[in-house]
Design a protein that fits this description.
Helix content: 40-55%
Organism: Amycolatopsis nalaikhensis
Protein name: Response regulator transcription factor
Number of helices: 10
InterPro entries: CheY-like_superfamily, NreC/VraR/RcsB-like_REC, Sig_transdc_resp-reg_C-effctor, Sig_transdc_resp-reg_receiver, Tscrpt_reg_LuxR_C, WalR-like
Keywords: DNA-binding, Phosphoprotein, Transcription, Transcription regulation
Radius of gyration: 17 Å
Strand order of the largest sheet: 2-1-3-4-5
Number of strands: 5
Largest sheet: 5 strands, parallel
Order of helices and strands: EHEHEHEHEHHHHHH
């Protein structure tokens, strides 16, 4: 069962998402929050698999709530997905840097929304490569520099991270690198450990900020 926390200051938005989730046999809404502070408190109380967090909320916004959840070791298994009204919201990239696993636009189709919740619950990033590149191009103004920990990655781990940044799944990475899916997953997981990344979304951010996505063979 996928346990979900909804955090949005608009009751109508929360009720709409809840209505979609409640009819699914494998998803359970365990709590609702009206602001970021309450979202963090309820995350600690209920330990959901997914926290759907609106980026703009009173008192504590979605970015700060994401940062607090990501910084709490007890909430390491909580995947934060940012809800936004615009696909290129100026706050989205900052939320990814704060530890969000991805983002969803509120006008998403119901079937795509449900699919996204299940994808996030598996620990996969909700980041379309084309949208991610637009975010990076728009909000990362400094030229790429060698990222912290880049030298610690093996050549194959760097290659795997570069392919993660292109939106490839472990199976697709395996096919591209001509290795087994299990080995691809191992490369990705080891890179996450070495870089201190919570999930694949942070690997994407790292790849773009370090220029790894443009490396030869990437």
């Amino acid at each position: 069962m996928i346990r979900v926390l909804l955090a949005d200051d608009q009751p109508l938005i929360r009720s709409g998402f809840r209505a979609l989730l409640d009819i699914e046999d494998d998803i359970e809404v365990v709590a609702e929050a009206a602001d970021g502070r309450e979202a963090v408190e309820l995350a600690r109380e209920h330990l959901p698999d997914i926290a759907l967090v609106d980026v703009q909320m009173p008192e504590v916004d979605g970015i700060e709530a994401t940062r607090r959840i990501a910084a709490d070791p007890a909430l390491a298994a909580v995947h934060v997905v940012i809800l936004t009204n615009y696909s290129l919201d100026e706050y989205v990239f900052e939320a990814l840097r704060a530890g969000a696993a991805g983002f969803l636009v509120k006008d998403i189709r119901p079937e795509d929304f449900l699919h996204a919740v299940r994808v996030a619950a598996r620990g996969e990033a909700l980041l379309a490569p084309s949208i991610t590149r637009k975010l990076i191009d728009r909000y990362v103004t400094q030229p790429p520099a060698p990222g912290a920990g880049l030298a610690d990655l093996t050549r194959r781990e760097r290659e795997a991270v570069a392919l993660v940044a292109r939106g490839l799944s472990n199976d697709e990475i395996a096919a591209r690198m001509v290795i087994s899916p299990l080995t691809a997953k191992t490369h990705v997981n080891r890179a996450m450990t070495k870089l201190g990344a919570r999930d694949r979304a942070q690997l994407v951010v790292f790849a773009y900020e370090s220029g790894l996505d443009r490396s030869p063979g990437g």
